[in-house]
């Protein structure tokens, strides 16, 4: 016991402050709750939706001033139509309309399964310039049994009534031509109204797959 006590004491300053070095994974046993003043950080799952031959998935609740950042994770988004694009749009009226004006950038990686061609390029046809159209998150995702896309979208401070609404997305894509084609998208919804709903869909046809929405503490 004396050794343990001395070790603990060595991690306390003369003013009685517990040093960070003393806090390791096994230093505090049987913790059931933290004081509300302690910021523990992390991700909070708000909701999950699963598409089954669905036209779209819409998140119309839970996007508010509670969190400064929201993240959407896409798990095996599989289109029912081949060579279509996975897309999203924002709403300021709880999902009555998905038509927020956006400006964005879009670039991709490209590598064939045959290992005969690879590149990284900017794709002007998939960016937006003050457009209310849906923003592409993937290009030409295939609909064969093993083809899908997966990734995430970060949406920053959607409840702000001062700033535009920045977003960043990274989506890994199994292109319909047997190509690994990840997409990297960033931009902003050019509105100072609070964004309170987000919709995801394919550019044509229905889809399967799961989307998770997290708040970032």
Question: What do these coordinates show?
Answer:
With 217 residues, the chain is mainly beta. The chain has one domain: Jelly Rolls, CATH 2.60.120. Helix content is 4%, strand content 44%. The protein contains one helix and 13 strands; from the N terminus they run αβββββββββββββ. Strands 1, 3, 5, 6, 8, 9, 10, 11 and 13 form a nine-stranded antiparallel β-sheet that branches. Strands 2-12-4-7 form a four-stranded antiparallel β-sheet, with no helix packed on it. The longest helix has 8 residues, at 2-9. The two termini are 38 Å apart.
Secondary structure layout:
Layout: H1 2-9, E1 43-54, E2 56-59, E3 69-79, E4 86-91, E5 102-112, E6 118-122, E7 135-136, E8 149-156, E9 165-175, E10 179-180, E11 183-189, E12 197-202, E13 207-216
Antiparallel strand pairs: 1-13, 2-12, 3-8, 3-13, 4-7, 4-12, 5-6, 5-10, 5-11, 8-9, 9-10, 9-11
The figure for the number of domains is 1
**What is the class in the CATH system?**
Mainly Beta
Q: What structural class results from the helix and strand content?
A: mainly beta
Q: How many E strands? A: 13
Please write the string of helix (H) and strand (E) elements: HEEEEEEEEEEEEE
What is the arithmetic mean of pLDDT? 90
**Tally of DSSP helical segments:** 1
Which ranges are low-confidence, i.e. pLDDT below 50, for 5 or more consecutive residues?
A: none
Strand content: 35-45%
Q: Which descriptor suits the 3D outline?
A: globular
CATH topology: Jelly Rolls
- C-alpha-based Rg, rounded: 22 Å
Taking the sheet with the most strands, its summary is: 9 strands, antiparallel
Helix fraction, binned, reads under 10%
Distance between the termini: 38 Å
CATH architecture: Sandwich
